[in-house]
Design a protein that fits this description.
With 656 residues, the protein is of the alpha/beta class. α1 (20-32) packs across α8 (179-211), α2 crosses α3 (69-78) and α6 (138-150) crosses α7 (160-168). The protein starts with 12 loop residues before the first strand and ends in a 20-residue tail after the last helix.
């Protein structure tokens, strides 16, 4: 039977590998079994017999083989297919010797394998001289025969090869087999063929599944012998099917052996494995039948393929997440500058025109872009954002416009959809547009004008329906004068312009921004502190700070402040200088327009505010004695009242 193929239908297929004399003897039996099996008779010996049989195996022409003597031994050793042996019985040999006694009183016996000690007893009963010899190769058989001929033996009993040698030398050769032994061999072959067909049917579905898997897979039986293998694994092992089936996997490749899995009954998944100078992720699983372990399977996943699949999944997830999360409700702040910007954005959202958002880094340009998208008629459609400064030119071009398969070295099989296509019917947000290379500016201008995009390597453009919102922190007008930005692209983008204020231009919004951020971080850290109460002593410093990083810097500082304050269980236990080390920018002399006010005075004022005007408590918070605090008050002219407990206004503890 062909290895790993579907089981054949119809009569069992037997291949009778013989030599002329045993074939002539067996022909009546072949005729008897013609209704029970399709029998091919092949005349060959030794190496020729094995080569012919292997050819039948590889071509799937036989379910089982039947042979005798040396041929049977060679086939069993060299074939991964069932072989039935026509055995030489004692009665067969006795009949041959009786026949030989009628011809001569001395008989030579030459058999494959080894001599038969029991013949020494028989020769006395038959009153006949017997000289036994055994052979392993054709040359060995000729040598043994020649020895008998020279010794004067005229009758030789043995295998088909020995009988032929005798006839060629003019001697009498007698075949040491009977029709009964041949019938028994054919019966055994039929049973082996039946079992082989059952086994083939048992694994047919497994083979079919394995054949269509890209992973390298091999299955073994309880003895770690290969019962199924797919093309990728066969290629790894570097051997044809005929040399794999039935072989112990551990002997072929010890690193792949499943003996330990079969012995322990434990499955292993996602095991890193180095094999064939490549990295693999291996799964070792058990095959069960009726609850019992019938074998095991090894699956090798190419580590490079897994890494590529992981990257594809990440890209797919990113594209599936092409949604705008923020709305106008997400924009905190009630300053005049903020209200003006939000009002303009509301108006722009009701149109389908392009928008150019300007402002310093960190002012929230993408948040405004998402809010505009979510209030436009394109809400619910894709919102795709790309930072034009984060990609090299060649990669940015592929990201924006996509590419066809084979467009360039390393291009993705099947091509790739660009971000313009991904944003079809929705909004494409081009952040840091001022950093886009000049060649891509030209392509972008054409897309905006023609409303169609052409992938790299493509021959036909694809119509798209995309609203473009661009953003920049750079002065595009200056870049135009420097020849670094296309004037025509600027006019195409700058249809509606939205200028966002820096955080220092809307300082009154700082409490509304930082308190929710700090509160969320405190809760995440397991702190029960009220952010408004805890941050009250530093709120003036937060307002005075010039915030070069704008809201993005505010978010980072809120996290840092929360981490520092979370170590205190009660806001009243927080010393004024708790943030001095972790947030030095708030206390730097150049922190803002009020820098002329000396740091010591700031600390004293804040401590007094936190202590509700009680100087003893303020001194404790500052870590100094009351007399030192009084001296500081006098030197810094923070206050000149020498009363023990002056009645100063209590600080606000709610949101500012």
């Amino acid at each position: 039977m062909a290895p790993f193929s579907s089981p054949p239908t119809g009569l069992p297929r037997l291949c009778f590998v013989s030599y002329r004399h045993i074939r002539e003897l067996a022909m009546p039996v072949v005729a008897e079994y013609a209704q029970r099996a399709r029998i091919e008779v092949v005349d060959a010996t030794f190496g020729d017999a094995l080569a012919l049989a292997q050819d039948r195996v590889e071509r799937g022409m036989a379910d089982a083989f039947v042979s005798a003597g040396s041929n049977a031994a060679i086939l069993r050793a060299g074939l991964q297919a069932p072989v039935a042996t026509i055995h030489l019985g004692g009665f067969d040999l006795l009949q041959a010797l009786i026949q030989a006694r009628r011809i001569a009183d001395r008989v030579g016996v030459v058999m494959y394998g080894q001599t038969i000690p029991e013949l020494d007893d028989v020769k006395d009963l038959l009153n006949i001289g017997i000289s036994q010899h055994a052979y392993r190769t054709p040359d060995d058989a000729r040598l043994r025969f020649e020895t008998l001929r020279q010794e004067g033996y005229r009758v030789i009993v043995g295998s088909s090869l020995v009988v032929e040698l005798a006839e060629q030398a003019g001697l009498r050769g007698l075949l040491a087999y009977s029709l009964a032994s041949i019938r028994k061999g054919f019966d055994d072959a039929l049973e082996l063929a039946r079992v082989a067909r059952l086994e083939a049917g048992r694994y047919e579905q497994l083979h079919s599944v394995l054949h269509n898997l890209q992973e390298a897979v091999v299955a073994v039986d309880r003895e770690d012998r290969i019962i199924a293998i797919n093309p990728p694994m066969r290629q790894l092992l570097g051997k044809p099917d005929a040399l794999l089936r039935g072989r112990p996997l551990g002997e072929l490749e010890p690193a792949l052996s499943l003996r330990a899995t079969l012995a322990s009954g434990r499955q292993e998944r996602a095991i890193a494995l180095r094999f064939g100078q490549r990295d693999w992720v291996a799964d070792r699983t058990l095959i069960r039948e009726h609850g019992d372990i019938a074998g095991a399977a090894l699956t090798l996943h190419d580590a490079n393929v897994i890494q590529a699949a992981d990257a594809s999944l990440r890209i797919l997830q990113r594209r599936q997440q092409h949604t705008a999360r923020h709305t106008f409700a997400s924009l905190a702040g009630g300053s005049q500058a903020m209200r003006t910007a939000v009002a303009s954005a509301h108006r722009y959202a009701r149109t389908d025109l392009g928008v150019l958002i300007t402002g310093e880094s960190g002012v929230g340009k993408e948040l405004f872009a998402q809010a505009i998208h979510n209030e436009s008629r394109r809400a619910g459609r894709p919102f795709v954002a790309v930072n034009c400064a984060s990609f090299p030119e060649s990669l940015l071009e592929s990201e924006l416009f996509g590419h066809e398969e084979g467009a360039f070295t390393g291009s993705r099989r099947g091509g790739k959809c660009g971000l313009f296509e991904a944003a079809h019917t929705g909004t494409l947000f081009l952040d840091e547009i001022g950093d886009m290379p000049m060649p891509l500016q030209t392509r972008l201008l054409r897309v905006l004008q023609e409303r169609e995009v052409m992938r790299l390597g493509a021959t036909a453009p694809l119509p798209i329906d995309v609203r473009v919102v661009a953003a920049t922190h750079q002065p595009l007008e200056a870049l135009i004068e420097q020849g670094r930005f296309r004037r025509d692209l600027y006019y195409r983008l700058n249809i509606l312009r939205l200028a966002l204020p820096a955080l220092r231009e809307r300082r009154e919004d700082i409490p509304a921004l930082i308190l929710p951020m700090a509160d969320r971080c405190l809760k995440r850290l397991g702190s029960s502190l009220d952010a408004a109460v805890a941050l009250a002593p530093w709120m003036d410093a937060l307002r005075r700070y010039h915030w070069p990083g704008n809201v993005r810097e505010l978010e980072n500082l809120a996290e840092r402040i929360a981490v520092t304050l979370a170590q205190y269980a009660d806001a009243r236990d927080i010393p004024f200088d708790a943030l001095a080390h972790d947030c030095p920018e708030l206390f730097h002399a150049g922190a803002g327009p009020a820098a002329a006010e000396r740091p010591l005075a700031q600390r004293v004022r804040a401590a007094l505010a936190q202590a509700g005007g009680r100087r003893a408590e303020a001194a404790r918070l500052l870590g100094v004695s009351r007399s030192t605090l009084w001296r500081w008050l006098a030197e810094q002219e923070v206050g000149t009242d020498t009363a023990e407990e002056p009645r100063l206004p209590r600080p606000m503890t709610g949101p500012v």
